[in-house]
Amino acid sequence: MKIDSSIDYNETIKIIRKYPNEKKFTLAILQDIQKEYGFIPKEVMTKISDYLNIPLSDIYSMSTFYKALSLKEKGKYIIKVCNGTACHIRGSNSLIEELTDILNIAPEETTEDGLFSIEIVNCLGACALAPVMMVNGKYYGSMTKEKVKTVIDEYRGLEHEQ
Ligand code: FES
């Protein structure tokens, strides 16, 4: 499945126009755009820049400064691997290696078919289950390399069923 990257600009315009065209609303607009598309598309940045009459470079710096905003399109399944202390000690690095091998992408990248993104995070708040991985909010604890493969196969299987 390819990500459909066609942007519904009507939605963009609606989001932008909810706010008065003043610079102080830039971050609020960007947060709404992030919520709608899962990232900040370049074309949308241009529209915000036109509407607020501020340079595109300002929008760009803001989009890269805040961790909650992303310039990259994410996959359908976002895999978070915990590399916090407890998980690190219990071998999270081998999970990351296995994932990058199976999916053929580096952390913070998305597979070409748009299905999977890998993110490395500091603590998923379930240290007792270390090492921990999460897929779209679902926890997988006491992970092993073998289990990583099973989990990926599970999600690939879901795609074939559709
Ligand atoms: S360190 Fe991994 S869940 Fe806390």
**Mean pLDDT, rounded to whole units?**
91
The percentage helix is: 40-55%
- The low-confidence parts are none
What is the number of E strands? 4
**Sequence of secondary-structure elements:** HHHHEHHEEEH
How much beta, percentage-wise?
5-15%
> Count the helices. How many?
7
Silhouette: elongated
The largest sheet is: 4 strands, mixed
Bound molecules: FE2/S2 (inorganic) cluster
Tell me the structural class. Answer: alpha+beta
| Terminal CA distance | 10 Å
How would you describe the overall organization of this protein?
47% of the residues lie in helices and 11% in strands. It has helices at residues 9-17, 26-37, 42-52, 56-65, 85-89, 92-103, 145-161, and strands at residues 77-82, 116-121, 133-135, 138-140. It has a 4-stranded mixed beta sheet, covered by helices on one side. Strand 3 and strand 4 (138-140) form a beta hairpin. It is elongated and about 50 Å long. The mean pLDDT is 91. FE2/S2 (inorganic) cluster (FES) is lined by residues 82, 84-87, 123-127, 130, 132. The site of FE2/S2 (inorganic) cluster has 12 residues, from helix 5.
Short description:
The protein is built from 7 helices and 4 strands. With 162 residues, the chain is of the alpha+beta class.
List keywords for this structure.
alpha+beta; 7 helices; 4 strands; 11% strand; elongated; binds FE2/S2 (inorganic) cluster
Helix/strand layout:
Blueprint: H1 9-17, H2 26-37, H3 42-52, H4 56-65, E1 77-82, H5 85-89, H6 92-103, E2 116-121, E3 133-135, E4 138-140, H7 145-161
Parallel strand pairs: 1-2
Antiparallel strand pairs: 1-3, 3-4
Bound molecules: FE2/S2 (inorganic) cluster (FES).
Residues 82, 84-87, 123-127, 130, 132 line the site of FE2/S2 (inorganic) cluster.
